[in-house]
Amino acid sequence: MSAPDVTALRRIGRRLRAERKQFRVIVDAFDVPMAVLGIVWIPVFFLGILVALPPVWTGVLAVFETVIWLAYIVEYLVKFGFAPRRDQFFKRNLLTFVVVFLPLVVLPFTI
Length: 111
Fold this sequence. Notes:
Blueprint lengths: L2 H48 L4 H28 L3 H7 L1 H17 L1
Helix pairs in contact: 1-2, 2-4
């Protein structure tokens, strides 16, 4: 292998390491806020199902659920956008993709 090839490979390696590090920082930044939203979502979801609430409160709960769901969509899209290997990210997070984006497919049929 000639010297320019080695230099190019080193440059690519440094770039990939930098991308992975940036991706790790982004993933870590989402961990706590998304865990909190997941914990908040549980009572919001079950309160709407188990308790007969006035229409105003039902609407408020629906807004909370929508905001939380949109936060999960944003999280997935940001992680996907910064993933060094988007194909691997998609394969490893296929269940998350289905859970987050399935309501987009089902939503038109529920209105």
